[in-house]
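Researcher: Next sequence.
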Amino acid sequence: MQKYLLLLFISAVRFGFAQDLHLSQPDLQPLVVSPALCATNATFEIQGAHRQQWLAAGAPFQTQLLSVHARSKKVRPNEGYLGFGLQVQRDLAAQSLSHNALRLHLAYHLPLNRNSFVSAGINLGFGQRAFEPSGQWGGQYNGLSFDANILPSVSLQNRYAFSYLDAGLGFAYAYSRGVAREKTLSKVLLGFGAHHLNKPGFSFLDASARLQPRIAFIAQAELSLASVHSALEPLLFYQFQSPAQELLLGFAYKHYLKGGPFSRVSNVQSVGFGLYTRLQDAMVLQFKFQIQQLKLALAYDITVSSFAKAPQLQSAFELQLNYSFE
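Model: Next structure:
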């Protein structure tokens, strides 16, 4: 595995292409999509995510995210408000290549009327990448076993690391309309984000290698079915970061076991199931539930791309946990 990491490291240095993380449930980590989505759901909210990919390969890719949102004041009709956010990110590849980042988010939400808001936001961040070339290398085998006394055939430092500053912006539109006695509800959210607009350096050795801007767009909704106790939640998410792009689309079914969309969060219990496809990559199965302020969502990726030919590269698991305060 170490020789593949070395090739990955050399390729990144030589060609300078780098991409951000991707999630199977991006709607549950809105700051990954756009800073304009900061503090859109609750007065105060904590969101955590853990994603593990290619576990059977023996050196899985892991991603952890922690986001905190807060509003400047209680939402009132015809009054705008500020949203503040903090996001901490950690990526780890085989315990050798790591990426840590911290970003501050600021958004302003302006009501157009009693049913809709427009939002604009920015983020400023600090990141660090590190590469520690440790382990057993192919040239250290004596023909029978690994021999630590044999020097590796490549000459590397003990650790490579560098830091960078980051900036992005975004816009969003939210619409919500429902009448309890008519058992109808319609919620629509559109979000746009442009990340890494300053094209920060992203290479250990080549100063000319830059992290390209990542453009993200999300469209999601909650639409009542026969009654407000069940709803369909379609989702479309698209992002591109030269030369890579990703399209995720599908829907989830949501059923309220207690309360409903017009109830206080503390009176709600619901369960949901989702089915999505990440075009030319994977099918995503989702299970989620809500018990009052606590939301938990699990997603499992089934690879359908050419990676499916390698048994150890066939799946990914993602856990999302959110807690909100009214």
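Model: Residues 1-17 have pLDDT under 50 and may be disordered. The chain has one domain: 2-325.
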